[in-house]
Design brief:
There is one protein chain. The two termini are about 35 Å apart. The longest helix has 12 residues. A hairpin with a 2-residue loop joins strand 1 and strand 2. Helices cover about 10% and strands about 5% of the residues. It is largely without helices or strands.
Length: about 100
C-alpha cells in the first residue's frame, strides 16, 4: 500500500517471499534482490568492490575497455561511452552496512 513516485528507489527490506505490485498508468520496474553481501563494500562512481585495490582494478579495466569484464552496450558507439573520473587522492574505505541488515 505504499505509493512510489516515478524516478525513485524504494527499499523493501529482507526476508520476503513475494511482493504485490499495482500500477495505474503503466510502469517500468527494475527489481534487485538476493542475499545481502556478508561484508562491507567500497563504492565509488559506478563500481562496487571489497577493497580500494579492486575499485582501482575495475576503473583500469573500464578505461581499457576490457570487454571480458564490461560488455559493449548494443546501440551505443565508443564515443558515447562515459570515461571514469580519476580516483580521489585518498584510500577508499568500505562503507558500513545499513538498511537494517545485521553486521558482525
Amino acid at each position: 500500500g505504499t505509493p512510489v513516485e516515478p524516478g525513485n528507489l524504494f527499499y523493501l527490506g529482507s526476508d520476503r517471499e513475494s511482493i504485490r505490485l499495482h500500477d495505474t498508468a503503466g510502469a517500468h520496474l527494475l527489481l534487485l534482490g538476493g542475499e545481502p553481501f556478508g561484508e562491507d563494500l567500497v563504492m565509488w562512481w559506478n563500481f562496487v568492490a571489497r577493497s580500494h585495490e579492486e575499485i582501482e582494478q575495475a576503473r583500469n579495466d573500464w578505461e581499457k575497455r576490457d570487454v571480458g569484464r564490461f560488455a559493449e552496450i548494443a546501440g551505443h558507439t565508443p564515443e558515447q561511452r562515459i570515461p571514469a573520473p580519476p580516483l580521489p587522492g585518498l584510500h577508499l574505505k568500505p562503507r558500513k552496512r545499513r538498511c537494517g541488515v545485521p553486521h558482525d
